[in-house]
């Protein structure tokens, strides 16, 4: 079986999935992006997960779960990690590329 990049899988699944699956895929895609960014920032600073855990007061196990996208951090956890990395948290609220139906509030 050939391996594929997550982005390729997400694109393929997004086209064929029902709305609930698309929403779940969007959540996972976001979690994957957060985990990848955290891992990249940690490695750029030459830190191990254990060192980041000590500096941020977030457990090493949770850092591992976040980096693997098996856990979505709360905002306070994310802020502790960003602070320990001397980073800055930036959130972009982009428009979707395809129009979505509006949900009633």
Could you characterize the architecture of this molecule?
The protein has helices at 6-16, 19-44, 49-56, 60-67, 75-84. α3 (49-56) packs across α5 (75-84). It is an all-alpha fold and 105 residues long.
Give a quick precis of the structure.
Helices cover 60% and strands 0% of the residues.
Q: How many H/I helical runs?
A: 5
Report the major sheet: none
Spatial extent as radius of gyration? 16 Å
Shape estimate:
elongated
Q: Based on the structure, what is the oligomeric state of the protein chains? A: single chain
Regions with little confidence, pLDDT below 50 for 5+ residues: none
Write down the CATH topology of the domain at 26-84: 434 Repressor (Amino-terminal Domain)
In percent, how helical is the residue content? Answer: 55-70%
What average pLDDT do the residues reach? 84
Strand percent estimate: under 5%
Q: Kindly report how far apart the N and C termini lie.
A: 45 Å
* Count of individual beta strands: 0
CATH class of the domain at 26-84: Mainly Alpha
Order of helices and strands: HHHHH
CATH-defined superfamily of the domain at 26-84: lambda repressor-like DNA-binding domains
The structure class reads mainly alpha
Q: Which short descriptors sum up this protein?
A:
105 residues; mainly alpha; 434 Repressor (Amino-terminal Domain); 5 helices; elongated
């Amino acid at each position: 079986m050939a391996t594929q990049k997550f982005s390729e899988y997400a694109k393929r699944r997004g086209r064929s999935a029902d709305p609930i699956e698309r929403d779940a895929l969007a959540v996972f895609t976001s979690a994957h992006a957060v985990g990848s960014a955290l891992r990249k920032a940690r490695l750029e600073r030459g830190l191990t997960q254990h060192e980041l855990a000590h500096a941020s007061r977030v457990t090493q196990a949770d850092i591992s779960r976040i980096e693997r996208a098996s856990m979505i951090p709360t905002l306070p956890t994310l802020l502790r990690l960003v602070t320990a990395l001397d980073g800055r948290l930036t959130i972009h609220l982009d428009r979707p590329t395809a129009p979505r139906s509006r949900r009633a509030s």
